[in-house]
Amino acid sequence: MAAPLVLAVDDSPTIRKIVELTLRRANYRVRVAASGLEALAALAEEPPALIVLDVMLPRMDGYQVCSLIKRRSGYERIPVLMLTGKDGIFDKVRGRMVGASAYITKPFEPHELLAAVRRLVAQPAEAP
After folding, report:
1. I need a surface site. Which of 16, 94, 117, 127 has the fewest CB within 10 A?
2. Pairing relation of β-strands 80-84 and 29-33?
3. pLDDT tens-digit profile of 3-15?
4. Domain boundaries, the chain
């Protein structure tokens, strides 16, 4: 059985790389996207087990992307982990209102990200 796929969406190449390396080391498959439009296109190719989604994205913010995903038939049950520098209560409530499952603020530690991902997705088997 293939390891769960995580779609990491962030306009920062550095954050995308940190998320990708952290999750790959924990035996997750990772696909990255730099924008909401790239993320929506990736969904059509292979629906992920989880989406790690930045709030501040070009053209369409993460709240809009999350809302679109949650309204698409067949994608509404995919958990969305919002990843952002905004940590106000309003931001967290807004994330919940559009369907986000969890929220992590930047800067984050890799172990924080991994713990949140493991809570939201069945953990893959350890590599031999």
Report:
1. 127
2. unpaired
3. 999 999 999 999 9
4. 26-85+98-120
SS3 88: coil
How high is the pLDDT of residue 93?
Answer: 84
3-state secondary structure of 114: helix
Q: Which one of 3.40.50.1450, 3.40.50.720, 3.40.50.300, 3.40.50.2300 gives the CATH number of domain 26-85+98-120?
A: 3.40.50.2300
Give the span between the Cα atoms of 6 and 62, in whole angstroms: 16
CB burial readout 29-44, b (16+ within 10 A) else e: bbbbbbbbebbbebbe
Per-residue b or e along 79-98, where b marks 16 or more CB atoms closer than 10 Å to that residue's CB: bbbbbbebeeeebbebbeeb
End-to-end CA distance of the chain: 14
User: Which H or E run includes 56?
Assistant: none
